[in-house]
Amino acid sequence: MRIIAVTNQKGGCGKTTISTALAIYLSHVVGKKVLLIDSDQQANSTEILLELEKNHYELGSKLHSLEKSIVRANPNASPVAIKSILENNKQYSVLKEEYEKSFRELSKDDESRYGIQHLLSGRVKDISDVIYETNYDNLSIIPTDVSLINLQKDFANNFLLKMHLNKLTGFDYVIIDTPPTINEMVINVLNASNLVLIPVMPDAYSIKGCRQTKNYVEQTIEAQKAILRENNVDIDYRIVLNGVDERLIVHQFIISEVKKEFGDKSMNTHIRRQNAAVSRTNTYQTHFMLETGYKRQEIAYDFEALINEMEMEV
Ligand SMILES: Nc1ncnc2c1ncn2[C@@H]1O[C@H](COP(=O)(O)OP(=O)(O)OP(=O)(O)O)[C@@H](O)[C@H]1O
Ligand SMILES: [Mg+2]
User: Fold this and answer.
1) How many CB atoms lie within 10 A of CB 279?
2) Are 136 and 49 in contact (CB under 8 A)?
3) What are the pLDDT digits (tens) for 167-196?
4) Protein residues whose CB sits closer than 6 Å to any atom of ligand 1
């Protein structure tokens, strides 16, 4: 079982995009057994993989279409009249109720689902009790939600996650999405990982964040060596440029700077910038861009190359 953390203290550099895309690719496309762990209280990976928003947006779009068709069927009706037609339409009322319910579901703090916070605080003892199936073949998730912020003071030690993952069986890969910071949660993630992937966007601020994260990862590796009294700890890291447009001179310059500074630790594979049409699909973008056949986006080839470069024997 290989454990891959995707981390960078800089926000918005593609941690969630890469975590979810890698997880979907390895499981749904390649057929490996994959567990994604969401260790970011923003819970973006959780929303994407449990498709929490999908239902809401689909209902919204159905409601909107129905509204439009009713308006079109009654071209001379005033807004007040339209309102009354809509209110008396059974299909519309049912859909509206479902839509409003899904909005409330999405916006409330979800205490009903166990997540990584329950496992690490000791409220749930067995890791299998916080693992959920997703709609993707072979892909499971340990989700989280905003209540993860309450955990920080409760961390028993920096190797807690590792201890739990040691008991895990039946998975080929564990992929861990992390928050844009360095906190006890992230330290636990680093200590549990074999490979730390640091995504970085091609701009000066991102490179700065990447350098700080890289230094921190190196310190963690050194600390592990000291604690375990071993020289060969099974953890390494790689830097991967994300959102690259190789046609831009400035991106070409940054690619060469990153290579110069980070050498072998920077990956040859770059993840290209998705075009507007793809990124507009937002929550489903990872799925969309990994679809096979005519829909397959160029970026899917980047993930294939990334996996090959990580020597994942897929
Ligand atoms: N290769 C790419 N091409 C175009 N847009 C991208 C690419 N990668 C990520 N994005 C977009 O950039 C934004 C930030 O990405 P993402 O949420 O994955 O970053 P993050 O590092 O997880 O952010 P945070 O630090 O808040 O957790 C999203 O809108 C995402 O769609
Ligand atoms: Mg994220």
Assistant:
1) 15
2) yes
3) 999 999 999 999 999 899 999 999 999 999
4) 11-17, 40, 42, 44, 180, 242-243, 271, 273-274, 279, 285
